[in-house]
Fold this sequence. Notes:
Elements: E1 9-13, E2 16-17, E3 42-47, E4 54-65, E5 72-82, H1 84-92, E6 97-106, E7 109-111, H2 114-120, E8 126-127, E9 133-134, E10 138-147, H3 148-151, E11 156-173, E12 180-186, E13 192-202, E14 205-217, E15 228-230, E16 233-235, E17 239-245, E18 248-252, E19 261-262, E20 266-267, E21 271-274, E22 278-285, E23 293-301, H4 302-307, E24 313-315, E25 318-329
Parallel strand pairs: 2-13
Antiparallel strand pairs: 1-3, 3-13, 4-5, 5-10, 6-7, 6-9, 6-11, 8-12, 11-12, 11-13, 14-19, 14-20, 14-21, 14-25, 15-16, 17-18, 17-22, 22-23, 24-25
Amino acid sequence: xxxxYPLIIVSILLxxxxxGPSQKETIAYSxxxxxxxxxxxxxxxxxxxxxxxxxxxxxxxDTLLSNVTNSQEIRVSFEAALGKELLKTANSLGYNAIFxxxxxxxxxxxxxxxxxxxxxxxxxxxxxxxxxxxxNEDKRQFELEFPYRLLQLKKGEQELKFxxxxxxxxxxxxxxxxxxxxFETLSKSPLATHITKFKVIAPxxxxxxxxxxxxILDTTVVNPSEYDVRYLGPGYPDLCWQVKIGTEVxxxxxxxxxxxxxxxxxxxxxxxGTAHDxxxxxxxxxxxxxxxDRIEEIGKMLFEFQQSPMTNMPYGNLKKINYQIExxxxx
Length: 331
């Protein structure tokens, strides 16, 4: 499906459609979402400033239900080839590398900006031969994912911008390996900027809360003492429950220590998702020092959670779980 085009200006005719569910308060399944429809809409890619030594090719944008992030999302893929000319420009300004800052721009907000993670990782090693950092001539494939729930788009046709900003960067070389370094500085403004404009049919977003009323472990199928060891002998798990949307943890409940029954009623904060985002409710043995032990989990698409709430029902390692879901249209 993807074709490589030598860019400075590329025009592609494509409509990216992620049809949402109906506008009922009920979160409804829509088979249309699972296939992409194609119509005529122009996608344009163009450079805003000089880019000697940089080539962007194979720009493609898709909407899909990702089996990686378990979310309904927009995926942007492209190839970036960096040549000597741009590296020479950066070197002449006192930088020893190039950093490509990428983000999706909607409603005045930058989403998933790669520069943010760069600044957060100042004390950590950064690869100089992969990702968004280029120390030498190289050609790389990129595939970036933007879940709809994080974009807060209104349902219907929306125009978006995918932006790439090319910065000069300085990295202090690692003393052990020459292929990694520690980030130090970034040029105050981009050496070049590349913008791709496109349109999508955004799906309906829902605001929802999950309320858990009661959880009891089934001691006939699971030994609760396996999850915890106390100074005076075997203990019971420190129970909590957790909610993930896709692969993102969005809520973790307070912990009840040394028990087989979680009877503290509680609910999540207001969460946002599409009908087809995958939601997981996990019952865990909480651990302060390592990963929590999973006792049981229930995973479904959001619309399935609302259609089949569980009330005093057994499930796997649980003798009973009682939860409810409340939802409303977000826009």
